[in-house]
Amino acid sequence: MSKKRRDNRGRILRYGETQENTGRYRYKYLDAFGEAKYVRSWRLDVNDPVPEGRKPEPALRELEKKISADLISQIIPEGGKLTVSDLVEKYVTLKNGVRPSTKTGYKTVMNLLKKDVFGTQRIDKVKTLHAQTWLVQLQKNGRGYSSIHSIRGVLRPAFQLAVDNDFVKKNPFDFNLGTVIYNDSVTREAISRDDERKFLKFIKEDSHYRRYYDGIYILFNTGLRISEFVGLTFDDIDFDNMRINVDHQLQRNNGIGLNIGDTKTKSGGRLIPMTEEVAECFRRIIAKRKVPKIEPMVDGYVGFLFLDKDEHPMVAMHWEKYFKHIVDKYNRIYKVQMPKVTPHVCRHTFCSRMASARMNPKTLQYIMGHSDIGVTLNTYTHLGYEDAIEEFERISEESRKAIGSKKDTAKVKTFKGYRKKKVSNE
Fold this sequence. Notes:
Elements: E1 17-19, E2 25-30, E3 36-41, H1 60-72, H2 84-93, H3 100-115, H4 128-140, H5 145-164, H6 193-205, H7 213-222, H8 226-230, E4 237-238, E5 243-246, E6 249-252, E7 258-261, E8 270-273, H9 276-288, H10 316-333, H11 343-356, H12 361-368, H13 373-377, H14 385-403, H15 406-425
Antiparallel strand pairs: 1-2, 2-3, 4-5, 5-8, 6-7
Helix pairs in contact: 2-3, 2-5, 6-7, 7-9, 7-11, 14-15
Protein backbone atom coordinates (compact mmCIF):
# COMPACT_ATOMS: atom_id res chain seq x y z
CA MET A 1 0.00 0.00 0.00
CA SER A 2 1.41 3.37 -1.03
CA LYS A 3 2.25 5.89 1.64
CA LYS A 4 0.11 9.04 1.72
CA ARG A 5 1.93 12.27 1.00
CA ARG A 6 2.03 14.84 3.82
CA ASP A 7 3.23 18.40 4.26
CA ASN A 8 5.92 19.42 6.75
CA ARG A 9 3.21 19.76 9.41
CA GLY A 10 2.05 16.18 8.91
CA ARG A 11 -1.16 17.01 7.08
CA ILE A 12 -2.29 14.68 4.31
CA LEU A 13 -2.06 16.30 0.86
CA ARG A 14 -4.84 15.79 -1.63
CA TYR A 15 -4.50 14.67 -5.23
CA GLY A 16 -2.68 17.36 -7.20
CA GLU A 17 -1.29 19.09 -4.09
CA THR A 18 2.44 19.30 -3.44
CA GLN A 19 4.66 21.13 -0.99
CA GLU A 20 7.79 22.46 -2.65
CA ASN A 21 11.23 22.56 -1.02
CA THR A 22 10.69 26.25 -0.23
CA GLY A 23 7.66 25.36 1.84
CA ARG A 24 5.25 26.83 -0.68
CA TYR A 25 2.21 24.76 -1.72
CA ARG A 26 1.39 23.98 -5.35
CA TYR A 27 -1.75 22.59 -6.99
CA LYS A 28 -1.69 21.02 -10.45
CA TYR A 29 -4.85 20.69 -12.56
CA LEU A 30 -5.93 20.31 -16.17
CA ASP A 31 -7.79 23.17 -17.79
CA ALA A 32 -10.74 22.91 -20.22
CA PHE A 33 -8.28 22.20 -23.05
CA GLY A 34 -6.49 19.42 -21.15
CA GLU A 35 -3.36 21.51 -20.54
CA ALA A 36 -1.54 21.33 -17.19
CA LYS A 37 -1.86 24.47 -15.08
CA TYR A 38 -0.49 25.39 -11.65
CA VAL A 39 -1.45 27.69 -8.77
CA ARG A 40 0.64 28.33 -5.67
CA SER A 41 0.22 29.68 -2.16
CA TRP A 42 2.23 29.88 1.06
CA ARG A 43 -0.83 28.62 2.96
CA LEU A 44 -2.55 25.28 2.52
CA ASP A 45 -5.69 26.01 4.53
CA VAL A 46 -7.64 29.20 5.14
CA ASN A 47 -6.75 28.99 8.86
CA ASP A 48 -3.01 28.87 8.24
CA PRO A 49 -1.14 32.04 9.25
CA VAL A 50 0.62 34.12 6.62
CA PRO A 51 4.37 33.35 6.86
CA GLU A 52 6.46 36.23 8.14
CA GLY A 53 7.62 38.48 5.33
CA ARG A 54 5.03 37.18 2.85
CA LYS A 55 2.09 39.12 1.38
CA PRO A 56 -1.45 37.97 2.23
CA GLU A 57 -2.91 35.71 -0.45
CA PRO A 58 -5.71 33.12 -0.76
CA ALA A 59 -4.94 29.70 0.65
CA LEU A 60 -4.25 26.92 -1.84
CA ARG A 61 -7.48 25.09 -1.07
CA GLU A 62 -9.46 28.33 -1.58
CA LEU A 63 -7.92 28.51 -5.03
CA GLU A 64 -8.77 24.86 -5.63
CA LYS A 65 -12.44 25.46 -4.82
CA LYS A 66 -12.62 28.33 -7.29
CA ILE A 67 -10.89 26.34 -10.00
CA SER A 68 -13.19 23.37 -9.42
CA ALA A 69 -16.30 25.57 -9.58
CA ASP A 70 -15.06 27.21 -12.76
CA LEU A 71 -14.31 23.89 -14.42
CA ILE A 72 -17.74 22.55 -13.51
CA SER A 73 -19.22 25.63 -15.16
CA GLN A 74 -16.83 25.05 -18.09
CA ILE A 75 -15.20 28.40 -17.40
CA ILE A 76 -11.50 28.65 -18.12
CA PRO A 77 -9.82 29.44 -14.77
CA GLU A 78 -8.29 32.89 -14.51
CA GLY A 79 -9.88 33.96 -17.77
CA GLY A 80 -7.06 32.32 -19.67
CA LYS A 81 -5.01 35.11 -18.06
CA LEU A 82 -6.08 37.39 -20.92
CA THR A 83 -5.93 41.12 -20.30
CA VAL A 84 -8.63 43.49 -21.52
CA SER A 85 -6.26 44.70 -24.23
CA ASP A 86 -5.52 41.09 -25.30
CA LEU A 87 -9.24 40.31 -25.49
CA VAL A 88 -10.06 43.31 -27.69
CA GLU A 89 -7.22 42.46 -30.06
CA LYS A 90 -8.51 38.88 -30.37
CA TYR A 91 -12.02 40.20 -30.98
CA VAL A 92 -10.85 42.61 -33.69
CA THR A 93 -8.92 39.89 -35.54
CA LEU A 94 -12.20 37.99 -35.94
CA LYS A 95 -14.00 40.97 -37.52
CA ASN A 96 -13.58 40.72 -41.28
CA GLY A 97 -15.24 42.76 -44.00
CA VAL A 98 -15.91 45.80 -41.80
CA ARG A 99 -15.98 49.36 -43.11
CA PRO A 100 -12.79 51.47 -43.03
CA SER A 101 -14.42 53.82 -40.51
CA THR A 102 -15.14 50.82 -38.25
CA LYS A 103 -11.51 49.68 -38.52
CA THR A 104 -10.43 53.15 -37.47
CA GLY A 105 -12.70 52.91 -34.45
CA TYR A 106 -11.18 49.55 -33.48
CA LYS A 107 -7.69 50.99 -33.76
CA THR A 108 -8.63 53.96 -31.56
CA VAL A 109 -9.93 51.68 -28.80
CA MET A 110 -6.88 49.38 -28.95
CA ASN A 111 -4.52 52.35 -28.71
CA LEU A 112 -6.48 53.69 -25.74
CA LEU A 113 -6.28 50.36 -23.89
CA LYS A 114 -2.54 50.03 -24.50
CA LYS A 115 -1.97 53.36 -22.74
CA ASP A 116 -4.58 52.91 -20.00
CA VAL A 117 -4.06 50.79 -16.88
CA PHE A 118 -7.54 49.34 -17.43
CA GLY A 119 -6.22 47.58 -20.52
CA THR A 120 -3.77 45.60 -18.36
CA GLN A 121 -6.50 44.16 -16.11
CA ARG A 122 -7.20 40.44 -16.38
CA ILE A 123 -10.64 39.90 -17.88
CA ASP A 124 -11.71 37.50 -15.14
CA LYS A 125 -11.07 40.24 -12.56
CA VAL A 126 -13.17 42.91 -14.31
CA LYS A 127 -16.57 43.40 -12.69
CA THR A 128 -19.45 45.61 -13.80
CA LEU A 129 -18.50 48.21 -11.18
CA HIS A 130 -14.96 48.36 -12.58
CA ALA A 131 -16.26 48.85 -16.13
CA GLN A 132 -18.67 51.59 -15.04
CA THR A 133 -16.02 53.37 -12.96
CA TRP A 134 -13.62 53.35 -15.89
CA LEU A 135 -16.17 54.88 -18.28
CA VAL A 136 -17.05 57.56 -15.71
CA GLN A 137 -13.35 58.41 -15.43
CA LEU A 138 -13.07 58.68 -19.21
CA GLN A 139 -15.82 61.30 -19.17
CA LYS A 140 -14.14 63.17 -16.30
CA ASN A 141 -10.96 63.20 -18.39
CA GLY A 142 -12.77 65.01 -21.19
CA ARG A 143 -14.15 62.33 -23.48
CA GLY A 144 -17.64 63.01 -24.82
CA TYR A 145 -20.64 60.73 -24.55
CA SER A 146 -20.57 59.68 -28.21
CA SER A 147 -16.87 58.77 -27.93
CA ILE A 148 -17.48 56.68 -24.80
CA HIS A 149 -20.50 55.10 -26.47
CA SER A 150 -18.23 53.97 -29.32
CA ILE A 151 -15.60 52.62 -26.91
CA ARG A 152 -18.20 50.63 -25.00
CA GLY A 153 -19.51 49.48 -28.40
CA VAL A 154 -16.23 47.59 -28.91
CA LEU A 155 -15.70 46.33 -25.35
CA ARG A 156 -19.20 44.93 -24.85
CA PRO A 157 -19.11 42.51 -27.83
CA ALA A 158 -15.47 41.67 -27.02
CA PHE A 159 -16.46 40.57 -23.51
CA GLN A 160 -19.48 38.77 -24.92
CA LEU A 161 -17.02 36.78 -27.03
CA ALA A 162 -15.23 35.87 -23.78
CA VAL A 163 -18.54 34.81 -22.21
CA ASP A 164 -19.53 32.72 -25.23
CA ASN A 165 -16.15 30.95 -25.17
CA ASP A 166 -16.25 30.28 -21.43
CA PHE A 167 -13.44 32.64 -20.44
CA VAL A 168 -15.68 34.57 -18.02
CA LYS A 169 -19.15 34.06 -16.58
CA LYS A 170 -20.65 37.51 -17.03
CA ASN A 171 -20.24 40.46 -19.40
CA PRO A 172 -19.21 43.46 -17.24
CA PHE A 173 -20.15 45.93 -20.00
CA ASP A 174 -23.71 44.70 -20.39
CA PHE A 175 -25.49 47.69 -18.82
CA ASN A 176 -27.38 50.82 -19.88
CA LEU A 177 -24.74 53.46 -20.58
CA GLY A 178 -27.16 56.30 -19.96
CA THR A 179 -27.52 55.28 -16.32
CA VAL A 180 -23.80 55.65 -15.71
CA ILE A 181 -22.53 58.68 -17.61
CA TYR A 182 -24.13 61.95 -18.64
CA ASN A 183 -25.20 62.29 -22.26
CA ASP A 184 -23.58 65.59 -23.19
CA SER A 185 -23.87 65.10 -26.95
CA VAL A 186 -25.69 67.75 -28.93
CA THR A 187 -28.88 66.44 -30.51
CA ARG A 188 -28.94 67.18 -34.23
CA GLU A 189 -32.47 68.32 -34.89
CA ALA A 190 -34.29 69.93 -37.76
CA ILE A 191 -34.24 73.70 -38.04
CA SER A 192 -37.40 75.72 -38.49
CA ARG A 193 -38.81 76.65 -41.89
CA ASP A 194 -37.99 80.27 -41.22
CA ASP A 195 -34.36 79.50 -40.33
CA GLU A 196 -34.02 77.34 -43.43
CA ARG A 197 -35.25 80.18 -45.65
CA LYS A 198 -32.96 82.71 -43.96
CA PHE A 199 -29.99 80.37 -44.19
CA LEU A 200 -30.45 79.67 -47.91
CA LYS A 201 -31.14 83.32 -48.68
CA PHE A 202 -27.95 84.36 -46.86
CA ILE A 203 -25.87 81.84 -48.82
CA LYS A 204 -27.41 82.83 -52.14
CA GLU A 205 -26.66 86.52 -51.59
CA ASP A 206 -23.16 86.12 -50.09
CA SER A 207 -20.41 86.91 -52.59
CA HIS A 208 -18.16 84.12 -51.32
CA TYR A 209 -20.43 81.33 -50.08
CA ARG A 210 -22.98 81.47 -52.91
CA ARG A 211 -20.80 78.97 -54.78
CA TYR A 212 -22.14 76.36 -52.33
CA TYR A 213 -25.80 77.32 -52.62
CA ASP A 214 -26.82 74.64 -55.12
CA GLY A 215 -25.23 71.83 -53.12
CA ILE A 216 -26.75 72.97 -49.83
CA TYR A 217 -30.17 73.41 -51.44
CA ILE A 218 -29.94 69.81 -52.69
CA LEU A 219 -29.07 68.56 -49.18
CA PHE A 220 -32.08 70.37 -47.71
CA ASN A 221 -34.42 68.94 -50.35
CA THR A 222 -33.36 65.33 -50.90
CA GLY A 223 -32.47 63.91 -47.47
CA LEU A 224 -29.16 62.57 -48.82
CA ARG A 225 -26.50 61.54 -46.33
CA ILE A 226 -23.41 63.68 -46.83
CA SER A 227 -21.28 60.62 -47.73
CA GLU A 228 -23.86 59.71 -50.39
CA PHE A 229 -23.95 63.31 -51.64
CA VAL A 230 -20.17 63.63 -52.17
CA GLY A 231 -20.13 60.21 -53.85
CA LEU A 232 -22.53 61.27 -56.62
CA THR A 233 -21.25 61.00 -60.19
CA PHE A 234 -22.67 62.11 -63.54
CA ASP A 235 -24.17 58.65 -64.00
CA ASP A 236 -26.18 58.95 -60.77
CA ILE A 237 -28.21 61.96 -61.94
CA ASP A 238 -31.05 60.85 -64.21
CA PHE A 239 -32.62 63.98 -65.69
CA ASP A 240 -34.83 61.98 -68.06
CA ASN A 241 -36.63 60.25 -65.20
CA MET A 242 -36.02 63.06 -62.68
CA ARG A 243 -34.37 60.89 -60.06
CA ILE A 244 -31.10 60.37 -58.16
CA ASN A 245 -29.53 56.94 -57.99
CA VAL A 246 -28.04 56.18 -54.55
CA ASP A 247 -26.11 52.92 -54.34
CA HIS A 248 -22.75 53.88 -52.78
CA GLN A 249 -20.98 56.41 -50.57
CA LEU A 250 -17.57 58.10 -50.67
CA GLN A 251 -15.46 57.99 -47.51
CA ARG A 252 -11.99 58.84 -46.30
CA ASN A 253 -9.88 55.76 -45.66
CA ASN A 254 -8.15 56.32 -42.29
CA GLY A 255 -7.36 59.86 -43.34
CA ILE A 256 -4.88 58.76 -46.02
CA GLY A 257 -7.07 58.06 -49.01
CA LEU A 258 -10.58 57.59 -50.35
CA ASN A 259 -12.73 54.57 -50.87
CA ILE A 260 -16.18 53.72 -52.20
CA GLY A 261 -18.35 51.81 -49.77
CA ASP A 262 -21.83 50.40 -49.73
CA THR A 263 -24.61 52.59 -48.41
CA LYS A 264 -24.83 52.89 -44.61
CA THR A 265 -27.70 50.41 -44.33
CA LYS A 266 -28.99 47.54 -46.44
CA SER A 267 -31.96 49.78 -47.28
CA GLY A 268 -29.64 52.62 -48.32
CA GLY A 269 -29.77 51.73 -52.02
CA ARG A 270 -32.65 53.70 -53.47
CA LEU A 271 -33.91 56.10 -56.14
CA ILE A 272 -34.79 59.59 -54.89
CA PRO A 273 -37.24 61.66 -56.96
CA MET A 274 -36.02 65.14 -57.95
CA THR A 275 -38.09 68.29 -57.99
CA GLU A 276 -37.48 70.69 -60.86
CA GLU A 277 -35.65 73.03 -58.44
CA VAL A 278 -33.27 70.24 -57.35
CA ALA A 279 -32.71 69.22 -60.97
CA GLU A 280 -31.87 72.81 -61.87
CA CYS A 281 -29.29 72.91 -59.06
CA PHE A 282 -27.64 69.79 -60.46
CA ARG A 283 -27.61 71.28 -63.96
CA ARG A 284 -25.79 74.38 -62.69
CA ILE A 285 -23.30 72.25 -60.71
CA ILE A 286 -22.50 70.16 -63.78
CA ALA A 287 -22.23 73.24 -66.02
CA LYS A 288 -19.84 75.01 -63.60
CA ARG A 289 -17.68 71.97 -62.87
CA LYS A 290 -14.15 72.48 -64.14
CA VAL A 291 -12.74 69.66 -66.22
CA PRO A 292 -9.74 68.28 -64.28
CA LYS A 293 -6.43 67.56 -65.95
CA ILE A 294 -6.80 63.95 -64.89
CA GLU A 295 -10.26 62.68 -64.00
CA PRO A 296 -9.98 61.24 -60.48
CA MET A 297 -10.99 57.61 -60.02
CA VAL A 298 -11.89 55.91 -56.74
CA ASP A 299 -12.46 52.15 -56.76
CA GLY A 300 -13.54 52.31 -60.41
CA TYR A 301 -15.88 55.30 -60.00
CA VAL A 302 -15.26 58.45 -62.06
CA GLY A 303 -17.12 61.66 -62.82
CA PHE A 304 -17.58 62.91 -59.25
CA LEU A 305 -19.67 66.10 -59.23
CA PHE A 306 -17.76 67.86 -56.48
CA LEU A 307 -13.98 68.36 -56.71
CA ASP A 308 -11.71 70.38 -54.41
CA LYS A 309 -9.03 72.87 -55.47
CA ASP A 310 -6.57 70.01 -55.96
CA GLU A 311 -9.00 68.28 -58.31
CA HIS A 312 -9.71 65.48 -55.81
CA PRO A 313 -13.26 64.43 -54.94
CA MET A 314 -14.66 66.40 -52.00
CA VAL A 315 -15.51 64.44 -48.86
CA ALA A 316 -17.88 65.06 -45.95
CA MET A 317 -15.26 67.08 -44.07
CA HIS A 318 -15.20 69.75 -46.81
CA TRP A 319 -18.93 70.42 -46.57
CA GLU A 320 -18.98 70.28 -42.78
CA LYS A 321 -16.39 73.07 -42.74
CA TYR A 322 -18.36 75.12 -45.29
CA PHE A 323 -21.47 74.89 -43.14
CA LYS A 324 -19.57 75.94 -40.02
CA HIS A 325 -17.97 78.95 -41.73
CA ILE A 326 -21.34 80.04 -43.15
CA VAL A 327 -23.10 79.84 -39.78
CA ASP A 328 -20.22 81.67 -38.07
CA LYS A 329 -20.37 84.51 -40.62
CA TYR A 330 -24.16 84.74 -40.36
CA ASN A 331 -23.99 85.00 -36.58
CA ARG A 332 -21.33 87.70 -36.73
CA ILE A 333 -23.66 89.83 -38.83
CA TYR A 334 -27.08 89.25 -37.27
CA LYS A 335 -28.14 89.56 -33.62
CA VAL A 336 -30.71 86.79 -33.93
CA GLN A 337 -28.39 83.80 -34.09
CA MET A 338 -28.67 80.92 -36.53
CA PRO A 339 -28.69 77.52 -34.75
CA LYS A 340 -26.08 74.94 -35.59
CA VAL A 341 -26.58 73.73 -39.16
CA THR A 342 -24.69 70.75 -40.55
CA PRO A 343 -25.22 68.42 -43.52
CA HIS A 344 -26.90 65.99 -41.14
CA VAL A 345 -29.21 68.73 -39.89
CA CYS A 346 -30.26 69.20 -43.52
CA ARG A 347 -31.20 65.52 -43.64
CA HIS A 348 -33.18 65.79 -40.40
CA THR A 349 -34.88 68.92 -41.67
CA PHE A 350 -35.93 67.28 -44.94
CA CYS A 351 -37.28 64.25 -43.09
CA SER A 352 -39.24 66.46 -40.68
CA ARG A 353 -40.69 68.51 -43.54
CA MET A 354 -41.91 65.36 -45.28
CA ALA A 355 -43.33 64.02 -42.00
CA SER A 356 -45.06 67.35 -41.39
CA ALA A 357 -46.55 67.15 -44.88
CA ARG A 358 -48.00 63.76 -43.83
CA MET A 359 -45.99 61.68 -46.29
CA ASN A 360 -46.66 57.98 -45.81
CA PRO A 361 -44.09 56.77 -43.22
CA LYS A 362 -43.07 53.76 -45.32
CA THR A 363 -42.51 56.01 -48.33
CA LEU A 364 -40.44 58.35 -46.19
CA GLN A 365 -38.48 55.39 -44.82
CA TYR A 366 -37.59 54.39 -48.39
CA ILE A 367 -36.52 57.89 -49.42
CA MET A 368 -34.37 58.29 -46.29
CA GLY A 369 -32.80 54.85 -46.72
CA HIS A 370 -33.65 53.81 -43.15
CA SER A 371 -33.48 50.08 -42.45
CA ASP A 372 -35.82 50.45 -39.45
CA ILE A 373 -39.16 52.26 -39.61
CA GLY A 374 -38.59 53.23 -35.97
CA VAL A 375 -35.74 55.52 -37.04
CA THR A 376 -38.08 57.28 -39.47
CA LEU A 377 -40.90 57.57 -36.97
CA ASN A 378 -38.54 59.13 -34.44
CA THR A 379 -38.30 62.08 -36.83
CA TYR A 380 -41.79 63.03 -35.76
CA THR A 381 -40.28 64.10 -32.43
CA HIS A 382 -38.82 67.08 -34.28
CA LEU A 383 -42.27 68.38 -35.08
CA GLY A 384 -43.57 71.18 -32.89
CA TYR A 385 -46.73 72.83 -31.64
CA GLU A 386 -47.63 74.33 -35.01
CA ASP A 387 -47.48 70.91 -36.64
CA ALA A 388 -49.71 69.48 -33.90
CA ILE A 389 -52.29 72.24 -34.42
CA GLU A 390 -52.33 71.68 -38.19
CA GLU A 391 -52.83 67.95 -37.71
CA PHE A 392 -55.71 68.53 -35.27
CA GLU A 393 -57.31 70.93 -37.76
CA ARG A 394 -56.99 68.39 -40.57
CA ILE A 395 -58.54 65.61 -38.49
CA SER A 396 -61.34 67.88 -37.27
CA GLU A 397 -62.09 69.03 -40.81
CA GLU A 398 -62.21 65.47 -42.11
CA SER A 399 -64.50 64.47 -39.24
CA ARG A 400 -66.83 67.41 -39.94
CA LYS A 401 -67.12 66.49 -43.61
CA ALA A 402 -67.75 62.85 -42.75
CA ILE A 403 -70.75 63.48 -40.48
CA GLY A 404 -71.86 66.89 -41.77
CA SER A 405 -72.21 68.29 -38.24
CA LYS A 406 -72.66 72.03 -37.73
CA LYS A 407 -71.49 71.52 -34.17
CA ASP A 408 -68.16 70.20 -35.46
CA THR A 409 -67.86 73.22 -37.77
CA ALA A 410 -68.16 75.52 -34.77
CA LYS A 411 -65.49 73.57 -32.95
CA VAL A 412 -63.07 73.85 -35.85
CA LYS A 413 -63.60 77.61 -36.09
CA THR A 414 -63.04 78.00 -32.37
CA PHE A 415 -59.92 75.86 -32.54
CA LYS A 416 -58.51 77.91 -35.42
CA GLY A 417 -59.23 81.10 -33.56
CA TYR A 418 -57.38 79.77 -30.53
CA ARG A 419 -54.45 78.85 -32.75
CA LYS A 420 -54.23 82.36 -34.19
CA LYS A 421 -54.44 83.88 -30.76
CA LYS A 422 -51.71 81.61 -29.39
CA VAL A 423 -49.41 82.18 -32.33
CA SER A 424 -49.81 85.96 -32.20
CA ASN A 425 -48.78 85.97 -28.55
CA GLU A 426 -45.60 84.02 -29.12
